[in-house]
Predict the structure.
Amino acid sequence: MKTVECKNILIVEDGDALRQSLTEHFGCRNAVRTAKTLAEGCAALAEATFDAVILDLVLPDGNGLSLFDALNSETPVVILSDLGSDESILEGLGRGAADYLVKPVSLSVLEAKLALRMLPPKEAVLSKNGLRIDLSKRTVRFFDTPIDLTSSEFNILAFLMRNAGKSFSAAEIYEQIWQMPHLNTQTIRIHLHNLRKKLMQISDECGALIMTEFGKGYFFRG
């Protein structure tokens, strides 16, 4: 499992016990700054640059999503929240979160998620059949043509590319990416439909990169 080392991490969490656990877990190999409120989080972002942010949503002085207004767009944010509804998850991802985990969560899973978002340049690029994904900058290109994807569409495409040639059902895709039992497979199917539509708009060749295998699911043509 990849670990997070020598990074500057901001933890915005009002729960004393969890904030302490996160600090102890990441603090032994990283520089960690903590904030208990939205105001403290915004102040920290104004004073320093961070490699990643772990963000709670329910804070004493407001919704953690407001922190995105103060963030550099390239700073990966992993939301760690008690709010586990489809609506909350999609709203968080829609605001630009790199990932959304529902409490309680394994600290090792959280670290793996963060490590993935902070891969060094060589490891941060996936390239197959003319499609190129930059995991760090979260950009997608088909040869020289950029493709604008939502956060969820990007996560799904990256997952399928890493596992090229292997089929996954909508439920398996959700569980593998978001590390929790699927809430609504229809939501994933909608994301997949929109993703394939965007690829098809580039070219038939690009659109054919994600295929459906009857009775098994979806796969990236490797």
The chain has a mean pLDDT of 88. Helices lie at 16-27, 38-47, 86-94, 107-117, 151-162, 170-178, 185-202, 204-207. The longest helix spans residues 185-202. The two ends are 24 Å apart (CA to CA).
